[in-house]
User: Fold this.
Amino acid sequence: MMRLAIVLGAALGAEAFVARPTPKYMAVTRRPAAAKVNMDMAILPKINKLLKSPVIGGVPIVPVVAGVAVAAPVIKKILDTPSRTYNREENTVGKEYDAWTEEGILEHYWGEHIHLGWYSPQEMKDGYKKKNFIQAKYDFIDRMMAFSGLNALEKSPAKVLDVGCGIGGTSRYLASKLGSDSHVTGITLSPNQVARATALAKERGLDNTEFKVMDALAMKFPDNSFDMVWACESGEHMPDKKKYVEEMARVLKPGGVMVMATWCSRDDTEKPLDEVERKNLNYLESEWTHPHFISIEDYVKHFESTGYLETIHSEDWWECTIASWRHSIWVGVYDPWPVVRRPWVWYKTLRDGICLERFHRSFDTGLMGYGMVRARKSTEGYMVKDVTI
Assistant:
């Protein structure tokens, strides 16, 4: 162990292993240069012997460990450098979700719902890993429905739009919950997600859902088309958050309900992001092809700036969703075979695991939060107050 510590210390530098300061009362005697040379010559055979043993299966351990220790900073730099930066022209969002859908790994672990789950205070106290990971996602949808005010409506909305529908898990759940009098349309940038969502709806015998490839910033629906607009974890991928809110509000009918859930950065109005926070945020944005994050407060301002969204209410659900990040890692640890049998996804899965842990830490430190915003469109359906600047 001492040998390993020495090797790692040399590789990681002073930041990792800081020598103890020499006590003031300890005398330090320096050897003459010639004596030092003789000592160095005498120790060479011992060093050579050390490098040759111990061995496991004929492989000397110390040189291997030394090599790993030397490579560690390089590996760390590679893993710290975002690999999937956002590019709207190249549709990096759609392509990334196409790849995830084709691999099937995300669906295997996360189920049909590619969003965080909901954990009660008691479940957190008892241990989040005791909860079924997939069930946590269904619980989140139920909580989001309650938050939106949907459960209190006199009748179910006839037409619902799911913005950023993934493989249609929430769309199908809403279609089933709301009944045949409601029709749910899901949109995504990923053709593979549309195909998978449509196939799953057919398997379930749901004929009140449909899925389309469509840009949420330039929707082809007419004004005032939907009684409810639902957006769960799609705002993260939008390069223009204001346009994102405006488009959803545009296609919402007067008196309709709009609800949004999205990962948010902390508000930096009073306390600007420092260098470390900015670096961490840049990694979280660029590793999973996010253009940028904004605060819950900024989203509320975008809701207000439409001029016709009323009764706007926001909350931060970070405490009841944070467990999802590490829970996602643990389900992979408990069931590694889907990854093990696909060597070509090992590196990507490693990076995803690191990103999940970093998101957990960002929630825990307050750098990130989980924004929930709801509103209703004025019954007049047009600007009811002057919001021009």
Summary: The first strand starts at residue 55 and ends at 56. The chain has a mean pLDDT of 85. Residues 296 and 371 are 5 Å apart (CA to CA).
